[in-house]
């Protein structure tokens, strides 16, 4: 939507509010649009998508009682004199991307199954993990641990981790946050429900991120699949629905010469001192063949007796790499990665090692 005025939009919104609209998608490329009050009277809504809006519900607004899918991007949640409570009793999927002032709202969604919180400073919505018993999938990306720790300081992260759902996806900055919050080596309760764990932007040269990742691994006794996509550059405006392809603005990986503390930790008894009995599948993409990366792979192979398939894909000449002038590994260097990995001892005798060519 690109208009000089929002008058026509207001008229359409009024018309829809009077005619029982069930699905509404507003993509706004103008200045931020303040939703008129009658939008909050659309109580027949099942699906709602809003982009670049001011979200300021009336004081008497209780919630959308039939809403099942809510997708909000670049939304500013305007604070009122009291904290606003929003009841979404039938909500199954909630996605929030680059939203601000989320801490001004309490969202109650007891039937929530999918939660995505992407680059939202007000990560207080992580409380939904403690109050929604049906969550199956959670994705949390934050911009920096330093920025977001202020917003989550009143959240019991240990309790949240103990309630992770079946599928969980985190980026490296969230893992760094775990260490900043002094998450213990062993959680009070194991994360028994977690079966699939995805790490995006895991910087193997960052000791805090690596410690956060290993904390989740050692506390997930039923983990069956681990995926690590070491993409280093992404854009928060991409479509996160697939959650598989994006580029990031994180700092580059440390060189091996700077990785002393990481290697010391990985080689210590505290590196990975827990057998991953049920881990069957590991996928690691976009690795550079650094010593921390290879040692991490070595640890997984040595502690996963049920491992069936281990897939490795080195960095390639993707579009994002071309844009950011990243040096590409030569073919013989990629061969050296495979040669090193094949020499690592494996506790599983049936594991199939798969080495993929870099993506073009």
From TrEMBL:
This is F-box domain, FBD domain, Leucine-rich repeat domain, L domain-like protein. The lineage of its organism: Eukaryota, Viridiplantae, Streptophyta, Embryophyta, Tracheophyta. SUPFAM superfamilies: RNI-like. Gene3D superfamilies: Ribonuclease Inhibitor. It comes from the Eukaryota. Residues 279-312 form the FBD domain. Coiled coil: none annotated. It holds the Pfam family FBD. Residues 9-228 form the F-box/LRR-repeat protein 15/At3g58940/PEG3-like LRR domain. It comes from Artemisia annua (Sweet wormwood). InterPro entries: FBD, LRR_dom_sf, LRR_FXL15/At3g58940/PEG3-like.
